[in-house]
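ping. complex inputs:
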Amino acid sequence: EAGVTQFPSHSVIEKGQTVTLRCDPISGHDNLYWYRRVMGKEIKFLLHFVKESKQDESGMPNNRFLAERTGGTYSTLKVQPAELEDSGVYFCASSQRGSEQFFGPGTRLTVL
Amino acid sequence: SQQGEEDPQALSIQEGENATMNCSYKTSINNLQWYRQNSGRGLVHLILIRSNEREKHSGRLRVTLDTSKKSSSLLITASRAADTASYFCATSYTGNQFYFGTGTSLTVIP
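pong. complex structure:
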């Protein structure tokens, strides 16, 4: 069974540019989560999808971040415009209802 | 903050020794999970312990949970060089959103 995949693995952009991260959850997992780890700090929850609906987006830092999950399959997280403090590793996870979350390898975002 | 906090932040041991990491949290939980992250890779789920459980085992891993003290421990027995990684605890209150600590960096010296 394929795990959670994320693309790209690493992205380097300049301040003010736009970046879109993609997450493909495990097939059949309705729940999809985005997390972020800024260097040296804890992993923080960003938001949670149940199928295509945003269940909880309380962790989204500001309106420069936009997450979508059209069709309830893969999800994208867009940062526009990117700022220096957005640098970090963005993790995606998926789960079936009530089970453990399976994490992807993460996308390392570097904003210069 | 609802996040878990791991202790110690860094741990260095010799291969074959046991490694113990602790996690404390602040509010009531539904379950607590431990994850491992090898350098440059994703988080790997190790073990889940529910709030009504006190101890769970998985291979060389042993997790305890003390809800009265709001703490958990992860014990890795007979450590190997391949156990070198960062270990995170994650607490869940709703069964969905997880709160992570800053992690314990474990180095196992061959």
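DSSP finds no helices and eleven strands in chain A.
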